[in-house]
């Protein structure tokens, strides 16, 4: 009988505590929605992107993986950087080949560029 009364009193206390916490929980009402996590673009804007910048790039997680706009923005930025570097490399290679052709006289034999042995002339 004592155990039964103890359980009834404990149940009343728990129900009362839950009721007071729900009813008198404060004036704020429901909790506000948390702002979504956004990528703060860790890729530098003032200098070219380096390997360490790409390795340090971390996207915030969402319900189904990563936010597509953040990933698309980062990939577009990296694509633009690569295109710019490819254009710069092509310009430098064109300038280098132009400088080589300007310094090499046209009557001089062309240098051997392959690994094969040049054909020997027949000396009789």
Automatic annotation (TrEMBL):
Domain of life: Bacteria
Biased composition regions of type Basic and acidic residues, renumbered to the chain: 35-47
Residue ranges, annotated region (Disordered): 26-47, 96-124
Record field: transmembrane: none
InterPro entries, A to Z: DivIVA_domain
Amino acid composition bias (Low complexity), ranges on this chain: 99-111
Xref: NCBIfam families: DivI1A_domain
Protein name: DivIVA domain-containing protein
Annotated source species: Streptomyces tauricus
């Amino acid at each position: 009988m004592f155990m039964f009364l103890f359980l009834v009193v404990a149940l009343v206390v728990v129900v009362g505590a839950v009721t007071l916490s729900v009813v008198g929980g404060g004036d704020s009402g429901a909790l506000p929605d948390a702002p979504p996590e956004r990528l703060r673009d860790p890729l530098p804007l003032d200098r070219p992107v380096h390997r360490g910048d790409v390795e340090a790039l971390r996207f915030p997680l969402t319900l189904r993986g990563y936010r597509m706009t953040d990933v698309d923005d980062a990939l577009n930025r990296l694509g633009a950087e690569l295109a710019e570097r490819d254009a710069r490399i092509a310009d430098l290679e064109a300038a280098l080949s132009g400088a080589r052709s300007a310094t090499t006289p046209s009557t001089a034999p062309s240098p051997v560029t392959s690994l094969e042995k040049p054909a020997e002339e027949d000396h009789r």
